[in-house]
Design a protein that fits this description.
Blueprint lengths: L1 H29 L37 H8 L3 E11 L5 E14 L3 E4 L1 H4 L4 E5 L5 E3 L5 E4 L4 E5 L9 E2 L10 E6 L7 E17 L2 E9 L11 E3 L4 E9 L9 E5 H14 L5 E2 L2 E6 L1 H6 L7 E7 L4 H4 L7 E5 L2 E2 L3 H9 L6 E8 L2 E8 L1 E2 L4
Parallel strand pairs: 8-13
Antiparallel strand pairs: 1-2, 1-4, 2-3, 3-7, 4-5, 6-7, 9-10, 9-12, 10-11, 11-14, 12-13, 13-14, 15-22, 16-17, 17-18, 18-19, 18-20, 20-21
Amino acid sequence: MKRINIKYLVVSLILVLSLLLSTSCSFSCTLPSTEPAPPTTPATHAATPIDPNWTPPVESQAPALPSIADVVAKVKPSVVAINTKVISYDIFNRPFTQEGAGSGWIIREDGIIITNNHVVEGAESITVTLDNGKTFLVNMNKVATDRLTDLAVIKIDAQSLPAADIGDSSKLRVGDWVVAIGNPLGQGLSAKQGIVSRQEVSITVSSGQTLYGLIETSAAINPGNSGGPLVNMAGEVIGITSVKISAIGVEGMGYAISSREATPIIQELINTGYIVRPWLGVGLHTVDQYVALRYSLAVNKGALVTHIAQDSPASEVGLEPGDVIVSLNDREVATAEELIQTIHSCQIGQRVEITFWRGDTKNTTYTTLAESPPP
C-alpha cells in the first residue's frame, strides 16, 4: 500500500514540474522586447509660394436694391380687379354660370382699361373693382378684343382715374428687377417681385394661337394675375402678364406680353374696335403624323383647311375643307401657326401664290388677300 502511494507521488511531482516548465516558457515568450526602437526621421516638403505678393481683394460697395414699396405705391392705384360671369353648359346641355377673376390696368383717365382677351372672352357680364374699392359694371358694347394677341380693351363710366405710365420694353435687360401687380386667385390686389429671365420668347397657347415677343419673368404669376401690369423700377408698364407654365417641378416661368408688342394692338383696338389684318378666310389645323393617318392625307405636315369663310379670298379660288396648304409665296409652312404668321406678314390687297395638296394631287393657285372683317 505504501509503495503505491510513493509511486503516485513521484508521478505527481513529474507532472507538476512539467507544468511549471511550460508555464515559464509561455511567460518568457510573451514578454515585450526591451530593445529601443530605431529613431524616426521627420518628413520634409519643399513649399513653393504661388504668389508671395497676393492680398485678398477689397470688397466694393454694391448698390442698394431699389425700393419695391415705392414702385407698388405708384402703380397699384392704376391696377384693377376684374370679375366675370360666363354661361356654360353641362353634359345634359343645361346652362350654369361660371365666375372668373382677372386683372387689368388703367391706360387713360376716362376709364379705358387694358387686360387679356382670355380674361373677358365669352363673358356675359364684367365687373371692375378699383384699388379704392369702387365697383363698375362694364357696358358689353364697350369691349374690344383680339384673340391672336390675347389682348382686350374695356371701358368703364368713370373720370379722373389714375392712369399708369407705359415704358419701353426694348430697353429691358435680362436680370432687371420687375414687379407683377394683380388679383391672384381673385383675392384682391397684391404685388410679386422678380427679374427678367428671358426676352423675345414665343409660346403656342392653343391651336392657331402663338404669342410672340414675350417677357419671361421669375415674378410669381398665378390665376387671376392675367391682364395685370408687369412694371419696371420706374413704375412703368413694360408688360401685360398673360401666361404661366404650370407643371410639376416647374417654378418661376411666367410670361408677359411686352409693351412693344402690345402698344400698337392696344391703339388699334381703341381706335377701330378690332384689328385689321390680311385675311385669307380659312379655318386651320396643324397636320402631324396622327392627323395625316386619321384623314389619309398625302403629306404629314402643313396646314389642314377645316373651314372656308363665305365670300373670302379662299372661297373665290376654290379652296375646300380637307386641302392641306404647304406653301405661301414660296415659303414652306409646316404648321397652322406658320401659315397664319406668313399671311400676317403680307399686305392687304397683295396677290399671293398658294401651294396645297388635295388628295394625292399637288396644286397651285393664286388669290388676293383681303381685309379681315370685324369680329
